[in-house]
Amino acid sequence: MSDFVKWLYANYIDPQVKTASRGDYEAYFSLMENTLEPDLAATYKKTQEFTAIHAFLLGLRTGRGLPRE
C-alpha cells in the first residue's frame, strides 16, 4: 500500500471508525480489544487497518455509497 493510503488511514479513516456507533456490536469489539494477548492485539489492529482501507477504497470506486443512517 502507498504511503498516502497509510497516512489517509491514520488521519481520516481510523478517527471516523473510532467515532462510529458500534451499536449491537459493542460487546464483540470490547471482547476483541480487551482479551487478546499483546501480539494478537497488534495483529488484530493491522487486520482492521487493512479491512478499513480496502472498504474505503471500494467506496471510492463504486461511487457515493449508501446515505448515512
Topology, element by element:
Elements: H1 3-19, H2 26-35, H3 38-62
Helix pairs in contact: 1-3
Mean pLDDT: 88
Could you tell me the number of beta strands?
Answer: 0
Percent of residues in beta strands? under 5%
Q: Give the distance, in angstroms, between the N- and C-terminal Cα atoms.
A: 30 Å
Spatial shape: globular
Low-confidence stretches: none
Please state the CA-atom Rg, rounded to the nearest Å.
14 Å
- Which structural class matches the secondary elements? mainly alpha
Order of helices and strands: HHH
Q: Output the number of helix runs.
A: 3
The portion of residues assigned to helices is: over 70%
Considering the chains and any ligands shown, give keywords for the structure.
mainly alpha, 75% helix, 69 residues, single chain
Report on this model:
- The protein is 75% helix and 0% strand.
- The mean pLDDT is 88.
- The protein is built from three helices and no strands.
- Helix 1 packs across helix 3.
- It is globular.
- The chain is an all-alpha fold and 69 residues long.
